[in-house]
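Q: Second attempt. The first request was missing the SMILES, so the protein and zinc ion are both included now.
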Amino acid sequence: MSKFAGLSLILVLLCVVSVTSMAQSTSIIAIKAGRLIDPETGSASNNQLIIIEGERIKAVGANLTIPAGATIIDLSKLTVLPGLVDAHTHMALTYKEKPENNYYYLTYVMESTPLRAIQAASNGIQLLSSGFTVIRDVGNNALYADTALRQAIEQGWLPGPTVIPSGTIIGSTGGQFWPTPEMYKQHNNNFPEYIDADSPDEIVKAIRQNMLFGARTIKLCIDCKPWGYSVDDIKLAIKEAAKGGCKVEGHVQTADGAQRAIDAGIYIIGHGNALTPEHHRQMAEKGIFLAGTDTPFTKYRGTETAFKQTVANLRDAWEKKVPLTFSTDFDYWNERMKDDKTGEWLTRGQMTIAFLDTWKAAKIPARDILYALTINGYKAADVIKERGPIKPGLFADLIAVSGDPLTDIDALREVQFVMKNGMVFKKDGVMTPEKFFNPGPVRMPNGRWTR
Ligand SMILES: [Zn+2]
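A: Got both inputs this time. The predicted holo structure:
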């Protein structure tokens, strides 16, 4: 058998497998929604029916006929809305007080990529349980634990949000670390967390490497070092990333860096603390998304002074009409992370949605917070053509809560129901993810195997 005959046989087999898996997934579900929110318009309609066929939404409306044989899910006492987005987090990094003294420089030395990938899978499940169906996971994920998690979820090995991973963060020499000569030269330790890319050739190569290993977005350290990236460097990165369908986020921590990122026309700026009102004005004009990573002041994190500044910055960005996303930069754990009432540990999902505290302190209206948590999140993650809004043809990702998040955003803190890709993950406030776990067939989203 020639190589080519072998290849076509494999292709035929792959087609058969994908047809088979499609045939198995055409179950029909009818959801009775007491109230259905459209975050795009900030409006809600009562007594809607959502028909789901397999993984996708088939129809939405008040006067639909329930197809024969459909499984009916009664959410008539709840408010149904699209899933939530954290536009900047790190699922495969958890630095702790013990043993790392909150220093992630040590986490990456002490914890292997496989261990961190499993932590990421657990964090993904916790986030999905709190209603987060899309996550932008932007680096500090060991040696591609983030892209492996995306693949595992897409292939159907386990439940989790849709992951938009960046792969390894690309930075000019040193990234955010100060590696020793031994680490820097041999790259055995430093390499997993940052790719050092200084020259244009190195920038291009680093981006191609991340995309080859499964990145769906690219993250650059714009100004982590005094030698950072120039406007031309950033423009080059944007152009190269576009070849692989990726948008670029710039980690920004200085006013100069922010200006360079804006001048280059970057897609997302990560971290809002170095941005001035003038930067906000320019970002609004250019439509640059802000993933401000707006940490609230809680008993387990932050200070009052930092919080006041964060709130003021977020408020100014909102007033200037910057496209805001909800983002956390969550990557830590400590022993104060307990629920005041129950004394139980808080999940990564509960602590993620707790970032609402900052948005409320900035007095941003609930419907605008919801817009940031949904529509702008889908746009920043670049998934809005495929998933997000509850509209026919899109993947069936949706959640339900008691109360009305359009007037009381805190209603989002207790998610009762979660559906992802047409499968029920949580019902009556209890996770029921069994259906997500199976030994095969491996799901191939586009009908063929890709990384
Ligand atoms: Zn971050």
